[in-house]
Design goal:
This protein is mainly alpha-helical. The protein has one domain: Intergrase catalytic core (hpI Integrase, Chain A). It is built from 10 helices and 3 strands. It has a 3-stranded antiparallel sheet with strand order 1-2-3, with no helix packed on it. 31% of the residues are buried. InterPro entries: DNA_brk_join_enz, Integrase-like_cat_sf, Integrase_catalytic, Tyrosine_recombinase_XerCD.
Length: 186
């Protein structure tokens, strides 16, 4: 299986959202759009509960690293979260499984990683890109880097501990670094 990629073209970022809604569901599109804005790993994103959100902040401990992630929610994320809350006022999880609701006495569960992986792969195949659940984090990191060229800022946002890891993760290649050296003459 090929490594998933950051979506480097902003029109393609919007097209992924559109296709997820048309081919899969509104919920998959919401996962994509909120995931882009929070830059969380999929396991943490799917585990978000409405109680983790306090006004304009999301506060969770990451499952992989146990690091505290305190994320200020931007307007787009807040709008989407409020839309979900209005549509599903009794949900516990931001991305709660609808299938689970059909089992009357079942405890609520978040949507499964497998369902998201399948939906993203379907759209990725249609667009001929390696799209997966990490593509949201990678895409946000890539676009922040392109905007700021501040790798330390991207590292902090992704909560990485090395520049090399972050550059590789967001898909900045040696070829792109070489191009920067060629184009910037002082």
């Amino acid at each position: 299986m090929a490594e998933v990629q950051a979506v480097k073209n902003l029109d393609t970022v919007r097209l992924v959202s559109y296709l997820l809604e048309k081919r899969c569901s509104r919920q998959m599109s919401q996962i994509w759009n909120i995931g882009l804005n929070l830059a969380l790993r999929i396991s943490d994103l799917l585990a978000v509960k409405f109680t983790d959100i306090n006004n304009d902040r999301l506060i969770i401990y990451e499952s992989k690293t146990s690091k505290l992630a305190e994320i200020k929610l931007n307007d787009k994320a807040l709008t989407l979260i409020n839309e979900i809350k209005l549509t599903h006022p009794h949900h516990i999880y931001l991305f709660q499984s609808y299938r689970n609701q059909q089992a009357i006495n079942s405890k609520p569960k978040p949507l499964s990683r497998r369902a998201v992986t399948k939906a993203f792969a379907l759209v990725g195949e249609e667009l001929n890109i390696h799209l997966g659940t990490h593509s949201m984090r990678k895409t946000r990191g890539y676009h922040l880097y392109q905007k700021t060229h501040d790798i330390a800022r991207v590292m902090k946002m992704l909560r990485h501990s090395s520049e090399a890891t972050t550059l590789r993760y967001i898909g900045i290649t040696q070829e792109e670094i070489d191009k920067d050296f060629e184009e910037l003459e002082l």
